[in-house]
Structures are given as C-alpha cells and as structure tokens.
Protein: GTP cyclohydrolase 1 feedback regulatory protein
Organism: Branchiostoma lanceolatum
Amino acid sequence: MPYLLISTQIRMECGPTIVGDVESDKDLMEYLGATLQQMLGNNFKEWRTPKSPRVVLDLLERRGWRVVGMTGIGQTCAWTLHKPLAQQKKQGNGHQEKAAATNGEAAPQKLSDMDLS
C-alpha cells in the first residue's frame, strides 16, 4: 500500500491520532502504538494511537513515508503520506525488490516520467 492517511480531531498537540483502517498494515500500526477500535455509533473500526500527529509523522518518516498533502476539514486535520513501493517491499520481506509495471519495466517515480498518452 503506497499511501497512508492519518488524521486527528481538535487536539493536535496531544493526540489521539487515527492512523489506519481495518485493511492497514498491522505491523506498521503496532510500530505506531495503535490499537484497532470501534467508536460508539460507528459501523467501522479504525487504528488509533495516543501519540500526537507530530510524533506519528516523525515515526513514519523514519520508515520512509513522506507527507504529500495536508488539509483541515472542520475541526479535523488530515495528512496523506506516500512511500514508494520499492521501499515497502525492501522493508516488508528483508530484501530489495524492484517495483515493476505490468510490462516488466521499472515503475515511474514521478508524474513527469509517466506516459499519459
């Protein structure tokens, strides 16, 4: 999964921070100190950590994630992070694998490298 969304409501300085949904990488969620919770009134579960967003962003940067977008929605702040697939595979199975497109070539890393025709 090359993208990750995290968010927090109202209390940016002290957390909690929502760091994933039920399909998120369990190892990454444990690294962030998150637990899978279902809040009263919701019909879905989400991973939450008591850490502040700044601490979560620092931890994710150590794992190769980088912020590509941030927005405020009412009293919620949300960050979108990206990590190239090649880095994820290297950390996930202990050896480096090249992220490949369906034709066997290396996947483009920048939008300007993609053939959009």
User: Anything to note?
Assistant: The helical segments are 26-31, 53-62, 85-93. Residues 94-104 have pLDDT under 50 and may be disordered.
